[in-house]
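Notebook, bench 3.
Goal today: get a predicted structure for Terpene cyclase/mutase family protein from Streptomyces tropicalis so we can plan the truncation constructs. The sequence was checked against the plasmid map this morning, with no discrepancies at the termini. Length recorded as 405 residues. Pasting the sequence as submitted so the record is complete.
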Amino acid sequence: MNVRRSAAALAAIAVLGGAAPAVAAPAPTASPKPALPSGLYGRTDPTYDGVFRQSLALLAQHTVGVRPAVKAVDWLTGQQCANGAFAAYRALPGHACDAKVMVDTNSTAVAVQALAALGGHGGTTGKAVTWLKSVQNKDGGWGYNPGGASDANSTSVVVGALAAVGEKPASVVKDGKSPLDALVKLALPCSGDGSGAFAFQPDKKGRLAPNADATAAGVVGALGLGLAPRAAGTAAEAHCTGSGGPAPARAAANGAAYLAQATARTGHLTSTMPGATDQPDVGNTADAVVALAAQGGAAQARTPLQWLEKHAGSWAVQSGPAAWAQLIFAAHATGTDPRNFGGLDLVGKLSATGPAPLAVRATGAADARQKDDSGHGTWWFVGACLVAGIGVGFLLSGRSKKKQP
């Protein structure tokens, strides 16, 4: 109850009751805010994105040669439930998960991608993937919540988790359908509005509407890749075609053509959030850069990449670790220096949002593994990759719980 209303109620009792004793209104006291875990990235409320932003931060650091603090990794592994699933955030990880803990596919899949990249967490990722397979839908895909209707974003981030642990997504089937089959069903034809795009989900009448965020996710998912892919080795033209080649690869190329057209004039995607008028969607633009580079090479992503280098800094400052991670993934996918991204050191900005890392590579990238001398297992390929949802394009750019516009 509002403190002022409490005081007014006590005053009314004194007037009406006559004999009621005078009671002083209690001084307002602020409820103490629970301390955030010291291993967590970001200082905002982690209720809805704790595991997501932690996973993106760890994966992004790994791709640029930063070895994160042990307590940051331990925080993430400690969020897992006994059945292998992850929720968005568990304030009391020492308590067993019960029906009130809302586990989801997106948090689970991004955690798998981060921990698989770091290495030494096979037990954790194995349990998580087993759980993901147990909640696969009959159409081969996944929804955000277990049993929910399949959507492009959730299916794509799970594809990335499967690939991260060495599974072939096309071979993970339910009733004969794979996640790639589910993604192809969400791809629009090369005619009409939004040709080549992916829909988030069909509407109630089964119709598909183009969704840029779902398209960025769908392109990467249809290629069988995760959140931090490298640029395609061979440049590919972005154009929409209804025939030729395997259906998933064709859907990815068509989706890239949609994204290229959507970013050609302004360099960015536009927000579809209610009330937004011609407002750039920075997070989804970063995801589009990753998708375009993964499908057709760095040159295909040049226009939105250049826009990001000029305009993304203030957005990331406000948005926190997941945003810095998304920009690192965009830099990695295009071969851009993440320590000089439009004049910003993305690596340093991300590291400043969490516990001090154990080690930082000064420049460049490597493919060598390092051992963790603290006894926490094998750690690290150091490459230049990067994550970050929304939004996984995928989840949270608003990425957790995406809604069809």
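Confidence is low (pLDDT under 50) at residues 1-25, 364-394, 396-405. Residues 49-360 form a domain with the Glycosyltransferase fold (CATH 1.50.10.20).
Flagging this for group meeting.
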